[in-house]
Design goal:
alpha+beta, 6-stranded antiparallel sheet, 6 strands, disordered N terminus, 5 helices
Length: about 150
Amino acid sequence: MRLTRPRLALTGAVTVLALAGCGSGSDGGSGVPATATGSLEHLAAEVKCEPNMQTDADEIRQALCDVDDGKFVLATFATDRGQREWLNGAKDYGGYYLVGRKWVAVGEERTVTALQGTLGGTMEEGSEHMNPGGSHNKGGHDGGDHHG
C-alpha cells in the first residue's frame, strides 16, 4: 500500500498523540486528576463548598466559597471565549487561577493548589504589576492598606 503525504502526516500526528498520552485521561504521573466539568454547583460540591452566589447571569455565574484550605471565587462561563476574556482582565489584579473548561477558581496559592488536587485544571498566575514583588500573589499584605 502506498502512503500519500497527507495520509503519512495524519498517521504521524496520531502516533505522536498516542505517545504523548493525549486524550487518555491520565495525569501523566503529575498527581493531578483529570479536569472536572459541570455546573458551578457541581464543581462546588466536588470540593465540599456551599457556594455563596454573587453573579448569576447567562454568560457568567460566580460564587464565593470557603473551604478548609481557604476562601476562593468560583466562576463558570457560557463560552470558552467569555472565560478567556474574563481571565485576561482578571489576571491584571494578581492572584492564582485554577483553570478548567469553562470554569475558573481564584484564590491564594495554597488554596488553589489544594483545589487542583480535586478539580484538576491548569494553574495560571496573575500579574505582579499591581504590587511589585508579588505580595498579592503570595497572600501577604505587608505594610499599607491599598484596598478601597
